[in-house]
Amino acid sequence: VVEELVDALQEVFRCDFSNSTVPMLEPAIGVGSTFEGWSLCHDDAVYQILLPLKAPRVHVFHLEMGAARQMPAEDPCIRVELECTCTGQQREENSLCLFHHSLKEMTENQDPSFLHSFCTGVYLDVQKTASWFQTFVMSAWTKLWFSSYNSMKILPCSRSCKLQVSNNRSATLFIEFIFGVQHGDSDIFLSSQAPEDTVTPNTRWPVSFAVAELKFFRHVARQAPTNHVYLKCLRTLVHKLVGRSFSTHTIKTIVMHVLTSAGQSRWNMKRFEPWMQDIIGYLRCCLDKKRLDHFFIGNENMPEDIILPLEYRTAEPLNLFQHLKHDLDAHARAICELKE
């Protein structure tokens, strides 16, 4: 149902904006725990949909990744530039080209410019993008056959588009559309999604590894199609540990490292206890060393089908537990919580 709804919305989008100066939508990608197969609660599961954005005609997106040695970039932005599309003959005839005419001249006979509608200064604005898409969904909903049998409500959110879809049988779906711009042809995106406990400026698009994570778990599933015990372990540990000293990202990183170090020969192991012992043991070892390497930065054991930018593949491994070296109280709390 979710895939059908997303496809229907994208079809309406193509019809409504085929020749407009708005961000173009690439094929949607389902990401997060629901699509990875380990969602904590099926009834309240949130289906996260990444919508890759492409610059509209005569515009280009330039990803500004911040300091060259900073991995991942802390303050990445998406700069929008106009792209000249006119030929020499068009210049001679003084025909309209966005690049060579001022915004004032352009807006006399056309819609407000992309820079005005979607950007703050010359940078793509997350909140303006989310607000525009929410407005589109509201208008598109009545054109979908889903609207005859379901009600839809847009939930408050400034950096994404969250939908609550309910049918006559009181069944409810939660769908969150996240926006992203691809880093080259890699599986890394600059995403509208930001950590919940931080205040992120509207022009900041944090680096997202969601597609790379999805591809990793699908890679394991292809090699071990009848075994999902490791996902049960992941679900159990996220339920027990996240919210205190450990984040979901930390637990997923541990599980991905354990799967990689175990090797494909063990991926079909179906007993819960050995998997859980391996994962807990790996986490305990990382805490003792105060070191947990980021899975997608400087990792030489990456599956070949996961595409990373060169600078991520060749970078020095990033220690996610670096803060524990300087905060002994946090380190003690983490060890204590793991023992509980």
UniProtKB/TrEMBL annotation:
<dbReference type="Pfam" id="PF20266">
    <property type="entry name" value="Mab-21_C"/>
</dbReference>
<dbReference type="InterPro" id="IPR026250">
    <property type="entry name" value="ITPRIP-like"/>
</dbReference>
<comment type="similarity">
    <text>Belongs to the ITPRIP family.</text>
</comment>
<keyword id="KW-0732">Signal</keyword>
<dbReference type="InterPro" id="IPR046906">
    <property type="entry name" value="Mab-21_HhH/H2TH-like"/>
</dbReference>
<dbReference type="GO" id="GO:0016020">
    <property type="term" value="C:membrane"/>
</dbReference>
<keyword id="KW-0472">Membrane</keyword>
<keyword id="KW-1133">Transmembrane helix</keyword>
<dbReference type="InterPro" id="IPR024810">
    <property type="entry name" value="MAB21L/cGLR"/>
</dbReference>
<keyword id="KW-0812">Transmembrane</keyword>
<protein>
    <submittedName>
        <fullName>IPIL1 protein</fullName>
    </submittedName>
</protein>
<feature type="domain" description="Mab-21-like HhH/H2TH-like">
    <location>
        <begin position="231"/>
        <end position="302"/>
    </location>
</feature>
